[in-house]
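We close this part of the discussion by returning to an individual protein. In the encoding step, the backbone of a single protein was reduced to a row of integers, each denoting a local shape. The sequence in question and its structure tokens are set out directly beneath this paragraph.
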Amino acid sequence: MAKHLDIEYNSSRENLTISEYGRHVQKLIQHAKTIEDRDARQRFVEGVIALMYQMNPQHKNVGEVQEKLWKHAYRISGYDLDVTPPEGIELTEATNGLKPEKIPYPHQVRRYRHYGTYIQEMLERALALEDEEKRMEFMSLIGSYMKMAYKTWNREHYANDETIKADLIKMAKGQITSLEGIHLDLLNIPTYHSSSSKKQKPKKSGRSHNKNNRKRKRK
């Protein structure tokens, strides 16, 4: 079963290591550290790297960009990420000096703003993949990311998978008609529920108090 990725309130949020990637990417990388199966952790991190890649529209040299992204991910993890980077990339604490390029804020359709500003671009990149299996894996990651963003944006409503998939299909503008078989639980986030146990405690003490009164009257 997937581990929960907790979303906390602003007052208790940790500082962003690299603000250009946003809080969600930082949460994804921190979540990757909790995945016990090494192969699953490797695939997950590669998916996050792909996500970071789509967020940067200026790809000059793919090799250099990939190296920078892997080193940024390692830095965000606190230099504690047990994964195997591509050949030729060495992950050490010396990567701390690498600065990310400024990511421009793209135009986003207001209707889907709660999913984040880069979802449309990531979706277009996923749809451009020729390999069907990789495309669907990326769609699953994007959908899971959207589900996480939806829960963060609106804690009071249940994030229905069919609603997320329907939005994905609409955003694809006719390029896909069905998303059957993809799972949106790569990031299983618990929704916020107010504690009801505290409200019940006064009732218990009240009943106990009444019983004690009856005992006194009998005496």
Notes: The chain has one domain: 10-171.
